[in-house]
Specification:
Layout: H1 2-5, E1 13-19, E2 26-37, E3 42-53, E4 64-69, E5 78-87, E6 92-93, E7 100-102, E8 105-106, H2 107-117, E9 147-148, E10 161-162
Parallel strand pairs: 3-5, 9-10
Antiparallel strand pairs: 1-2, 1-4, 2-3, 4-5, 6-7, 7-8
């Protein structure tokens, strides 16, 4: 009898990307998994979607977050909790050096190259622009409430509608 009552619970940490969700105080996280095919002997990408409790409202759409599974489910669908925002959308940091990265180069290197070859007026200035969140409801609409669209109408292009999978 005692064997059935004791249960060892392992806490698992996962890395995922926050996607639009219609749940209150919860974030929908897309987790990338690699599925092995025995016949082709190669891995294929599979995505799994989980809901994570986000009571602090710390993650936005597009952020890379660290989530942890809960020992007990909060609701029927919420099985994880958001631990930390690893990378906000657009700010990628190299974990080894700690420097910010643009595409495949460090930002410092890009600015040094621009000084050597001449800066353009159209060059993107990373340091002068405000942090993410200052343009909320002007150019950044990730805080808007989204809903699930149940019809496939080509004429209706609502940016706040999410197509069901």
């Amino acid at each position: 009898m005692a064997k059935n009552t004791l249960r060892k619970q392992t806490l698992t940490y996962l890395l995922g990307v926050c996607v639009p969700s219609s749940k209150q105080n919860a974030a929908k996280i897309r987790i990338r998994r690699m599925d092995f095919d025995d016949h082709l002997l190669t891995y294929f990408t599979k995505y799994e979607f989980v809901y994570a409790a986000d009571t602090k409202k710390c993650c936005k759409t597009g952020d890379t977050v660290l989530i942890q599974n809960l020992p007990d489910k909060l609701t029927r669908v919420i099985t994880h909790k958001v631990v930390d925002v690893i990378y906000p959308l657009g700010d990628i940091i190299d974990p080894v050096t700690g420097k910010k990265v643009v595409v495949g180069k460090y930002r410092d290197t890009v600015h040094e190259d621009a000084k050597l070859f001449g800066e353009l007026k159209s060059m993107y200035q990373h340091d002068e622009l405000p942090k993410r969140g200052s343009m909320e409801n002007k150019r950044d609409f990730t805080s808007k409430k989204v809903y699930v669209k149940h019809n496939k109408d080509a004429q209706d292009s609502d940016p706040y509608a999410v197509d069901p999978l």
